[in-house]
């Protein structure tokens, strides 16, 4: 018999039970297991209390849609609008020397940094439609080419 686990997500996090993958198409074609896509719809099974002045607006039992890679909004130095960062394995930069400029943080931990012509991120900017981190990288390349010319 399976044990029930009592989990309460922190802050604005939610736990979602994904909906079952479709077994066949609307036209009746059976989809093999290897071709089934991970559903991006599910049911909320637990919700955190929210952040200060930002309550969570979903509750247990709500059906929600979510992105394939959910992101965390971060503020990047020099940018007016927040950037949605997608973290997969590396949650933050653990050490940075005195010459390193920290460009973005999550909960006080560096996640985007620059030292000279090197730009590092602990998230995956290629998994979003926002190109600003790539544009910064290209600007570094252009600056480097200008120095060599």
Task: Describe this protein's structure.
- By secondary structure, the chain is an alpha+beta fold.
- The protein has two domains: 14-65, GroES chaperonin (10 Kd Chaperonin, Protein Cpn10, Chain O); 72-148, Class I glutamine amidotransferase (GATase) domain (Rossmann fold, 3-Layer(aba) Sandwich), CATH 3.40.50.
- Helices cover 11% and strands 28% of the residues.
- The chain has one helix and ten strands.
- The protein has one helix spanning 132-148; strands spanning 14-18, 41-47, 50-51, 54-55, 63-65, 72-74, 83-85, 101-106, 109-115, 118-121.
- The strands form four sheets. The chain has a three-stranded antiparallel β-sheet, with no helix packed on it. A three-stranded antiparallel β-sheet has the order 8-9-10, covered by helices on one side. The chain has a two-stranded antiparallel ribbon with strand order 3-4.
- A hairpin with a 2-residue loop joins strand 9 (109-115) and strand 10.
- The chain is extended.
- The N and C termini lie far apart (70 Å).
